[in-house]
Amino acid sequence: xxxxxxxxxxxxxxxxxxxxxxxxxxxxxxxxxxxxxxxxxxxxxxxxxxxxxxxxxxxxxxxxxxxxxxxxxxxxxxxxxxxxxxxxxxxxxxxxxxxxxxxxxxxxxxxxxxxxxxxxxxxxxxxxxxxxxxxxxxxxxxxxxxxxxxxxxxxxxxxxxxxxxxxxxxxxxxxxxxxxxxxxxxxxxxxxxxxxxxxxxxxxxxxxxxxxxxxxxxxxxxxxxxxxxxxxxxxxxxxxxxxxxxxxxxxxxxxxxxxxxxxxxxxxxxxxxxxxxxxxxxxxxxxxxxxxxxx
Length: 295
Known about the structure:
By secondary structure, the chain is mostly beta strands. The protein has helices at residues 90-98, 213-224, and strands spanning 2-16, 19-35, 38-42, 46-55, 58-67, 71-77, 81-89, 107-120, 125-140, 147-162, 169-180, 185-190, 194-195, 203-212, 231-245, 248-265, 268-284, 289-294.
């Protein structure tokens, strides 16, 4: 448990030619904890700095940084344009945390880097995007199978419009996310614009996925609670068209194809050279009605 530590915060301002500027610093130091009868000290867990100024009616972040042994972050920009980059080291994070917190069987390893950008035009239209790359990733929680990825790349992009009165989200014109590894691919995105101001708006989605079933199990197990004895193998390809709203989910069509299927599920062993499943379904909240069809 943590027995001592310091938190230092400073924020100063100055005026130059009727404009303000700010300098800020947030730092934690000399964090002390006792674990298994031994005392551990983390001299500089995290340090954040801020430099900003006022340019007319616009606040400008000249530099926002965060530094630690496991994370480095740098960002700058305005409400119209903002960019950020970060790198992290999960090995170092786990090493530092284990001195202060009992992680049990939790394992974290790997290195990553990420970028994020934001652009907003005067008419309210905006574009935002980001990407993340992870190498030698290893995550394990409890008895669940470990998730290992030698190289993973994820990209996301959103385009739309904000209201000019209060800059709230009014419309989403485009949204997509894509994840790639050496053997697998996942992609999901909107198929047409959505009126975000309508609380009952329908979000039409197209989902595509291909890869090896044996590798998808450890990725999904921590979130879906899959039984440990379940085993799956085979090359799969999924194509689905789905519409979502707060009151209904409509699976327009979902088609799953698996080659060289080998599975052990709920005490049953299944082996097929190829298998195909087509599903259509609808769920409505008001009537609690569910309709599912399959071929």
